């Protein structure tokens, strides 16, 4: 016994391999050992799963996990209600930016872009465009502002505010778990009701009564100018705008036919409306100053012909065999241009305009023969000259006859500010006119131009569609009251949604008050009460900024075309619905092409 | 502001605006205050150059070019201001320069003063729009008042005394006031020479300014004709041509070439000789044509080679080559000639006529110029400015331009107001009177407007070394007591404060423009409450 203990086999105990040990164990123990091992590893897997759930791994480490890759690497996906809420938050943030520009006491924004260009604007669409928004949901708002701008030209700020406010009001319903589709349905219903009500309320002005019709247009133009830089010169500019629009062809109302020329210098009040065409003197060659600068009843020809001595075809080459032929080639070239010039003269023109350059030779030729010429006239200017004087742009001088010429009462070159202008006045078929804008700084004139554009669009709309509603938040308050009442008769969740839409509409008067520095709550409650007490008499009551009271805005002549409001409500609701119907954003990573960046795929 | 960087309820940040980290943004009242700050700084720079005793500024461009100027628009545009609001002020003085040509310093000082006043009102919690409404109202009153106090000054082509005085007022603050009378006379004469009195139109393109360093300011003269900064093409040509008949050509003095690409294959010696002969014939033909039509001088827009040059010399035809486009035109207008595009069209009635054409050499530098005088048509004139150095010549040119603009404005509209800040003080009084009758908050803004108008006489007095507040209060009380609106700041210390007697005039349209433009710009600046600046990468 002792001996066995004292002398163990020396090669067995330390050198025995694991396998040998395992083999030496009893089979029953071997099974148990194996099962314990399996149990332990199962536990390990379970624990690591749990840990993973508790601590989500950073995004890049996800790639290391075995997973099925459906979308391109780096694609960001987020979904569900949180996504919806974050979209709404983004839209509200954008709304906050332009909130302060609404109304007559609204402020402007100064935006400097990466090229260092400065824009100062009060126009919602302009600001939204320059903000360069990338958040996909918020971009919808930019789009509706631009759509409103293209469609009716005015009310771009209101449409964004309205959409934002709708989203804000329905957010709590989303948080409470109301299905987005239910809300969308409700909002659509509310929009239908509101638009129907506007149609009911809108006041039509009879177009046959000229004076009254003009007064309508002037009031609409003035309302749209209120919030702009030119607000203080309202009377002056409304006259210009209405004159300009009424001068157009009343059926077509092509706004391109109103030319706007900007000349720095002078005060705003020095702006003028030319009942014809005006454009800046183009580059001229020597001899130009010797041409006559004024004509009564000029005979105008518009060309698209280059009047220059030049190589006829770029890749042509003349081979001259004999020296004597040399002169012949030169003469042939001269003949080509002189033929053109003679043809123009033979037709009896004394004002020659061309889109292409008029060279020094032609300039001097015309100067010799008491003809005025201007080359490199831009296309839209030339088009307007044609429209005004009744000539057609000629692409060749062959066969040019007196019938192709246009005329007007007077043509002259005049100094306006630091520049010389060619002015055609008193045109026979003047379906066109030109507004010459003056102002202290370039940015200033730019903003005046944008404001005038808005007014022109509004007046155009008013000419086509003569019904108007009252501004100053009056129509919004009335709609809000109407919707609130309508909501009570509807059962189910829709009631909540329509009531929310009613609240959202109040944002316009509220913001008007806020920007003007009035007591917002006071004014809104007062308005609500008035509209509720006597819906018929108080239907046009809104905020009168100038007098700081609640007043009948229709009587104050703050009028807006009904179409502007209809369009604003329709597109705001559309945008809100669109944003609500999105529950997942999939953003593919920026590719090499910079144009593809920020173009999200929506599902 | 939250729109730039936002996190949603779950704490996830999201980006709304592209590259928002590169955008700087200020908003609300701070933005307005920052603008006012910037504008004030800019206005203070030019403030000291206002008035007859105002001082000049030296501006050094990045290339090391030095400009010395007293002209507001020049100083502003050379300063290369980065700040957006500062840039607006630059534009402001530029548009005053384009439209009126004078009063570019005054307008910036006025805008600065208005903004300074607006800042105080903002501190009192008045809404910026209310302030700008008040300014607008006040501006209307001031402009209406200007009309009231304006006087019509009579002038005619023969009686230019009053035009002369106005030109003198404008030149008063400039470096050239050493030769005050002479420069004023030049400005008046030059403008009257080209003015179209019936249409009340003055085409400045017909007035050319040439400057040459050397001599002194007093040597500056008005040439009733054209100066061409060129010399005769051959040194042996006669330097003076009397009773000149000028052929003005825009074609080169060389054998006519087709514009189309061409190729002439010369295969034999004979052909080569023929070509030579053709060229020589062409030259001779040209010279002959010129000679035949009776010209005794040739001005050519292009050059000609030595062969033609010596041919011309042989035929005793002095010629000027490489005359620039605008000069060709001026020459043609001045001499009543026609620009001839090719030799075939030359005829004697197309020649321009001038009394004398002479080449004048200056100093020891071998530089010379061609002076065309006693032209058939005196509609084109040239002012030839001399001065000790380049800076002075340039500044003298600018000063003359300003003075000419003043004269032009008077030809367009001959109403004047009185200088020496008399008009400003009188308007300030008028606005203050009216302000008391306004019942709303705008009253405050209107009073501030009146105070801002006082900034101009203050700056004038300060620059002239007078005690500003005392001077202002003295003039103001005198205006009220005597009811005379032509009392102003006596900058030159002559003891007369009646600007009517001192003959200090400003055109009405210039003052009116200053008020209107400055007010409009200030309104625009006050209306901004949000600034988004996209920074450039290299700036960071």
Automatic annotation (TrEMBL), chain A:
Gene3D superfamilies: GroEL, GroEL-like equatorial domain, TCP-1-like chaperonin intermediate domain. PROSITE patterns: TCP1_1, TCP1_3. GO terms for cellular component: chaperonin-containing T-complex. Keywords: ATP-binding, Chaperone, Cytoplasm, Nucleotide-binding. One of its GO terms (molecular function) is ATP-dependent protein folding chaperone. It is found in: Cytoplasm. Its main location: cytoplasm. Pfam families: Cpn60_TCP1. It comes from the Eukaryota. InterPro entries: Chap_CCT_eta, Chaperone_TCP-1, Chaperonin_TCP-1_CS, Cpn60/GroEL/TCP-1, GroEL-like_apical_dom_sf, GROEL-like_equatorial_sf, TCP-1-like_intermed_sf, TCP-1_chaperonin. Molecular chaperone; assists the folding of proteins upon ATP hydrolysis. Known to play a role, in vitro, in the folding of actin and tubulin. Belongs to the TCP-1 chaperonin family. Component of the T-complex protein 1 (TCP1) complex. Heterooligomeric complex that forms two stacked rings. This is T-complex protein 1 subunit eta. It comes from Coemansia javaensis. The lineage of its organism: Eukaryota, Fungi, Fungi incertae sedis, Zoopagomycota, Kickxellomycotina.
Automatic annotation (TrEMBL), chain B:
It comes from Coemansia javaensis. InterPro entries: Chap_CCT_epsi, Chaperone_TCP-1, Chaperonin_TCP-1_CS, Cpn60/GroEL/TCP-1, GroEL-like_apical_dom_sf, GROEL-like_equatorial_sf, TCP-1-like_intermed_sf, TCP-1_chaperonin. Pfam families: Cpn60_TCP1. GO terms for molecular function: ATP binding; ATP hydrolysis activity; ATP-dependent protein folding chaperone; unfolded protein binding. GO terms for cellular component: chaperonin-containing T-complex. Its main location: cytoplasm. The gene is CCT5. Keywords: ATP-binding, Chaperone, Cytoplasm, Nucleotide-binding. The keyword Nucleotide-binding applies. It is found in: Cytoplasm. This is T-complex protein 1 subunit epsilon. Molecular chaperone; assists the folding of proteins upon ATP hydrolysis. Signal peptide: none annotated. Belongs to the TCP-1 chaperonin family.
